[in-house]
């Protein structure tokens, strides 16, 4: 092999090491063109040739022109004003919840968060032992030698941020194709995933169209998987809203069984115009019953209403019924 490092070796190393530092958004993929632009700038700086530096900056253009982040803009290009309104309301919702104490819980036997007290083990489960408290109690019995017995053991009580699962419930039925509202919905979903990335929440994706809803992405922190699934989601067919609510309820129950401290937030992006029942009962009864079940299960629901703003809309929507029963916040898009 060679015993000297040449410039091509450095460029190859930069292509491997620099991409994650050149991203302006969490899910952008920095291109090789961006890396080579950095190399060109270094060369120009070293040579002190201002002309080469200016020529290089003009020829390279925007290094992120083909990035994943720009695809989000393409989702809502035809409804740019509406997208900005939705983005602003999303920002307001995120700001309102930032730092909220509702996101924290008091836990025992959960080794995360900051300790606030200690208690004897609950139901004999010894986990996250508070050594200082345990040794102190054992030493108070007197005698020259400290012997720790079962009744001396204390476990920590902590205040911790509750792990959270964000479930995007996306309506991809034919009605969402009108005015290309699905493009706006996907752009909004992208922003919600970015927010989850910052807060390290788990995410999941339920898509409903045709005859039923489907869990396209199971709970995960692999955010790019969800974004790729969004990009591939087709649009068309009827609106099985009851199936979507039922799928969300089942997913929430299964997730909570795996993590007792987990909180689940469902984000429904839909016009609410259901036309496919789950069984033989009427759709309205199903939607009301499922909304009540979601409330009992403790699922925090938020709705982005994609109905067009027209004076007369003859087709019924169940957005208002779901919001009334669950107490969900509704954002008009």
Describe, in short, the structure shown.
Helix content is 43%, strand content 18%.
Describe the protein's architecture and organization:
The chain has three domains: 54 residues, no CATH class; 200 residues, von Willebrand factor, type A domain (Rossmann fold, 3-Layer(aba) Sandwich), CATH 3.40.50; 56 residues, no CATH class. A six-stranded mixed sheet has the order 6-5-4-7-8-9, with helices on both faces. The protein has a three-stranded antiparallel sheet with strand order 1-3-2. By secondary structure, the chain is an alpha/beta fold. Strand 5 and strand 6 form a beta hairpin.
| CATH architecture group name of the largest domain | 3-Layer(aba) Sandwich
Query: What order do the strands of the largest sheet run in, or round the barrel if closed?
Result: 6-5-4-7-8-9
Q: Give me the CATH fold name of the largest domain.
A: Rossmann fold
Q: Estimate what percentage of residues fall within beta strands.
A: 15-25%
Secondary-structure-derived class? alpha/beta
Give the strand tally. 9
Order of helices and strands: HHHHHEEHEEHEEHHEHEHE
Number of helices: 11
Let me know the average pLDDT.
79
Shape: flat
* Uncertain residue segments: 49-82
Q: For the record, what is the CATH homologous superfamily label of the largest domain?
A: von Willebrand factor, type A domain
